[in-house]
Amino acid sequence: MHISSVTIHPLGCSLSYETCAEHECGIQHMRNYLGDSYKGSVIGNPLLGLDRRAVPCNDKVHYHQGALWVGNAAHKPAFERNYGQTTVARGSWDAEAFVVFTPNAAEYPLLREVAEAARKGTLVLCAGDIPELNVPQKGLHILFRDKLPKTLIERWTATDKESHDLHKAWEREGGEKLLKTLTKAGKQWYSLGKSLAWDHRTGKLIVWLNPMEQGLYQAGWFGIEDLKEWAKDKGAVLRPK
To answer: For the packed helices 175-184 and 150-172, what is the interaxial angle rounded to 10 degrees?
Structure first.
């Protein structure tokens, strides 16, 4: 586990993002391991806002005098060797766990409160830049569900609603079937079908494509019909000759 900087604040704890494979993959694997309440609900009845980010850690929580470990404890001894040498708060996170340590006794009560909330299932996990927190870390945020500002909750809910609507549109347009058609046509890509958006000019669904063979095909946002044409080696995906 890579060592991250940490800010322990009134809304919870925030850990930095480090350039490593574990962090580049995001936090969904961790959420799944800890018991993601949102898992499987993207296309069905959606959970939005706080409900989407709630994680019932429950029995996977370990706390002792300034050291909090949540998740798989297999790597705990290695991290303990590192955090014992620090004079400031430090943490780490990967696909199956997060850990926070502080040598500052004044921060023990807040970290203990985080541990208690984890056991009760009243934490939310999220990642990225959250201006409302006013902290430098942009990696993993471990937050108290009942202390978050209303503006943040409303923003999350609106974003989640749009994401749900986009996934429904992808399903309605036969996106997964289209991927199989493209595969049969010999097309390959680094990314396709993961990033969805609305075309502000037409209101239709567009999809981010990062294709292989970039001497022949170009990356960009394309409509469903563009991708169908690509399967026939025609249309907007092909680089102009």
So the answer is: 50
